[in-house]
Amino acid sequence: MEKQEKLENYYQKEHTFKESIAHLREIALKTEAEEDFKWGIPVYTLNGKNVFGICTFKQHFAIWFFNGMFLKDPKKVLENAQEGKTKGMRHWKFQSLDEVEAKTVLAYMNEALDNQKKGLEVKAEKTTKVAIPELLQSKLAMNATLQAAFEKFTPYKQKEFCEYIAEAKQEATKLRRLEKILPMIEKGVGLNDGYR
Fold it and tell me: pLDDT tens digit string along 30-58?
């Protein structure tokens, strides 16, 4: 399916916020951003860089600003997308079309584009040393092929596997997660490759 067809399908799909996100799209198309489709949502880019996206959820719809931490946010509407996990991304949630003030939304979108032109973006931290959880370490130590496959991943991808296990609170969850990732490691598939 072509990008344009995916975009149209996204905006034409019947749901509670169909009219609302269509309005956000109208506003977005008044900017100089280029409309794209990534990760299952419309994403608006500038010179190939992600600037903002429009998405829907069960209880709300939102604009995601990929480097939203640099926005001035005079209306104090932006929230950290995933507290503690994302440094730069911010989102602006809406529950109804009445909450969308076109002039203000356009100002935020244009500021995000201006920030992108200035090169204001959160740089991914280089991951060097990875703390491997004991459960995974023991599996790697028992299987040289698995160890070699794990070492082929970049430090960043190794860290994703390690955090996935370490963040689980219960031992049973850690074990379930370990069983999930072992075949992925063997096949050379990163934990979040499906989203990239």
Answer: 999 999 999 889 999 999 999 999 999 99
Q: What percent of the chain has pLDDT over 90?
A: 74
| Closest to 159 in 3D by CA, of 183, 126, 188 | 126
Phi and psi for 15 in degrees, rounded to 5? Answer: -165, 170
- Please, which residues have CB within 8 angstroms of residue 163's CB and are 6 or more apart in sequence? none
Tell me, what's the pLDDT at 195? 67
Asked if residue 149 is part of any domain, the answer here is yes
Closest CA to 175 of 139, 121, 128: 139
CATH value at residue 112 = 3.90.1150
Residues 6+ apart with CB under 8 A from 27: 100, 102, 105, 106, 109
Which residue range forms the structural domain that includes residue 57? 3-117
Does 125 reside within a domain? no
pTM for the model stands at 0.66
From 117, 147, 173, the end of a domain falls on: 117
